[in-house]
Structures are given as C-alpha cells and as structure tokens.
Design the sequence.
C-alpha cells in the first residue's frame, strides 16, 4: 500500500456497515483486510455468526489477492442499535433493502447520529442518492457507491452523486475506494440502474430472447459469451473494441462501413421477450440440467478462483506493457 493510500484510509479508520447480507459481508471483509475497524449493524439476531461464517468463506480469496486473511475479527464489532452503531464513525456503507421509504428513513436517522465529517455511501444498485436523501436536512455527504458483486473481489465501484452532494464528497469517495484497490468511476448524472447493471440487463434480455427462440440453450449461451465477448471485454470495452474493429480508420470507419450500418439498423428492431411461464420453465429446467445441481458454494468458489486468476493475468499483462514502454 502506498503512503497516499494509507493516509486516505487513515481518515476513515472507523466504518459502519449497515446491512450485512451478501454485499455487506463482502464489504466488511474488504474493510477489515485493509486494517479498518468495522461496526456491523443488522437487525438479524444471528448476524454475528452469519458474518463470521462469511469471513471464513471469503478468506481464501483475500489471501489470493494478497490481502490479510487471518485475525480479521479483532477489528470487528456488532451493534444492533443504529444510532449507537454510527456514532463516532468516519464512514457509513449502507447495504439495505432497495425500498425508497426504508432508505429515506434510515438516512434521516443516521444524519442525526453520525459525525458531521462522515462520508455516507449507499451500495444501492437502483435507488439514486437524491431520492434516498430526500428526508435529510443536509444530504451533501450522501452519494451512491455501487459495487459489482462481490465487492471484495470485483474492482468496479460506481460513484453516483445526488443533486445535493458536495463535490468534495465525490472526491473523498473516489479516493477512499481507490485506496482499497477498487476502480471507482463517477457517473455524470443519475440514471435508473446506473451503468453496469443497465449493460448487464441488456445482455440478459438478449440472452433470454435467444433461449426463447430456441437458438441456443442456457449453457450453450454461457459458453458462447465466455469464449468470445467475455474475453474481449475483460481486456477492452465495447468502444475500444469496435474502434479496433474499424481498422486504421477506427470508429469513424466502423460506423460508415457495412458492419457498423447493419448494427445501427438492428437497433431499430428490438425483438419481444415474453418472460411467461413457458420461457421461465425452459430457462429453469435447462439450468437444472446443466449446472443447477452444482452446490452454490462450489460455483462461487470456482467463480472467485477464476476471477482472481483473471485479475492476476491482467495485472501481469499491464505490468509487462508498462515495462516495455
């Protein structure tokens, strides 16, 4: 860790994780692995055993990422009372239900109990900060910090300020996530679903359509994605990929040649996806026949191992490219 990252994290030494489901536990593990003190607030009676069990499952991935994975519990505390949980913290990472009224009431309560300097971040994948902070007296420190699941592993965090968010809070959030080794990207405006989920949603829609039409089965589609655009987009995004697809002329040439024109024309013909009982059962039955019998923990471990291997490969490739310049 660089001195600058250490200095940033020192500003946020005490963190409250509100809501410790899958996302909250993942954030908790990452925060603890960076030496931060974490207070977990969740109404579940068994939350302590749940989070500690999650830490055990996450530990191998942390170790593979080169992060501390043992003795994390020494900086972990639990507090069922919300006001006591956030009292004295430097940052709140909220991971509760995607219910507007719930989040609005939550932040109104937190605002009264948290120190004035605290950074207020929501992991929400759907509710914009402006909506969430509508009942607050001062929402200048509130913004969305939406991770891609699981947060301890996937680098992206979408930083989405609200209408009342102070620009300094945006800078602070970016610095905080970057110090954790994340890749924070600030959205210029609020939009439903933000960016990553909108892209994921569009791909899933087309995937369901292709299964609906009997073009492929679910496992065949997964193989096609991981053997083509999945590999491509792990290295280059859509725009840079199609820029190279245009040859020496780049995107300008691509959009004016046949391939580009055909793609643009296809956008005007959006097929209908009928997620009725027939399609739903087709997808579920094909999933069950292909990979549905694999225990979820085994699937998650395989996913994490492959993601770690991919991150290492990309890191090595970046380092090699930098050395040659």
Sequence:
């Amino acid at each position: 860790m660089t001195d600058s990252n250490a200095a940033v994290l020192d500003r946020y030494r005490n963190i409250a994780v509100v809501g410790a489901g899958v996302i909250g536990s993942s954030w908790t593990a990452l925060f603890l692995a960076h030496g931060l003190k974490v207070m977990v607030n969740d109404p579940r009676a068994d939350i302590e055993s749940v989070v500690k069990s999650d830490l055990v499952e996450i530990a191998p991935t942390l170790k593979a990422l080169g992060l501390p994975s043992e003795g994390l519990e020494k900086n972990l505390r639990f507090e069922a009372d919300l006001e006591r949980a956030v009292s004295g913290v430097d940052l709140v990472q909220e991971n509760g239900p995607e219910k507007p009224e719930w989040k609005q009431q939550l932040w109104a309560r937190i605002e009264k109990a948290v120190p004035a300097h605290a950074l207020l971040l929501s992991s929400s994948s759907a509710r914009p900060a402006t909506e969430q902070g509508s009942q607050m007296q001062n929402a200048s420190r509130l913004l969305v910090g939406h991770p891609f699941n699981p947060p301890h592993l996937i680098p992206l965090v979408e930083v989405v300020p609200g209408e009342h968010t102070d620009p300094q809070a945006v800078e602070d959030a970016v610095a905080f996530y970057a110090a954790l080794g994340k890749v924070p990207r600030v959205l210029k405006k609020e939009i439903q679903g933000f960016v990553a989920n909108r892209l994921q949603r569009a791909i899933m829609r087309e995937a369901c359509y292709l299964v609906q039409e009997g073009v492929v089965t679910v496992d065949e589609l997964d193989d096609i994605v991981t053997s083509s655009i999945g590999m491509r987009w792990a290295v280059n995004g859509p725009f840079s990929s199609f820029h190279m697809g245009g040859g020496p002329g780049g995107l300008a040439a691509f959009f004016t040649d046949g391939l580009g024109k055909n793609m643009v024309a296809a956008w005007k013909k959006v097929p209908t996806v009928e997620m009725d009982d027939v399609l739903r059962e087709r997808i579920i039955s094909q999933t069950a026949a292909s990979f549905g019998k694999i225990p979820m923990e085994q699937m998650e471990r395989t996913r994490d191992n492959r993601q770690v291997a991919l991150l290492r490969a990309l890191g090595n490739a970046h380092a090699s490219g930098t050395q040659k310049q």
